[in-house]
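Protocol step 4 of 6: structure prediction from sequence.
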Amino acid sequence: MAASASIIPSNPTATAKFRTTSTAATTPLSPPSVLKFPSISPNYPSTKPLISHSALPHFQHKPLSAVSPPNASTTPPPAATASTFHGVCYVVGDNIDTDQIIPAEYLTLVPSNPEEYKKLGSYALIGLPSSYQTRFVEPGQFKSNYSIVIGGDNFGCGSSREHAPVALGAAGVAAVVAESYARIFFRNSVATGEIYPLESEGRLCEECRTGDVVTIEVADNKLINHTTGKEYKLKPIGDAGPVIEAGGIFAYARKTGMIPA
């Protein structure tokens, strides 16, 4: 089974909406720098292990109370995250669209079905052109050997298919670090809680190589490339962090009392 890790970026244009239980008003889900949620300080234990061996689809997160670290702080600030992810990275270039992440022919797979969720992972990034000689997921495997994806500009452009971040999460990806994101891909990543979409300060896709061993320290907003010995600054994930840690927007809404648990 392949190792996995995670991260988080911010997209200046990402937006999403969800309903509260008592009113028809909606709350926009904006990039991390401007996200606004009620001033509640619930627990936000991470549901993302450094090595992911869970057979459950990410749409079926375990209850947060069942996965809380034994020594975790009980009242971290809402925007805080103590997640650290370590793994091998897979590097792609600019304009990686959703058809390259998960081709349309596989959209009939239903993520809420555990077996079909598993299959989605086997097809992650299968649409990349032949110039990518290293396969992201080896034939016959459901998990990738690469738990962190590093991309360039406009990652996740193209159609709005929610299957794109889901396929990456099913393959064991914990985080994507890109120079920038397509708005809908960023929103879907946060809403599903599948991966951390983190933004880099520069073009890490030109600094890192597929196979490099990296660590992402979300709290310190940095990526460390252990293969080259270099460190890189990441943009803060902001208030999107707790939403992803909770397992997505609906899990976060239930946790904070916005909708019935």
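Step 5 (inspection) to follow. The chain has six helices and nine strands.
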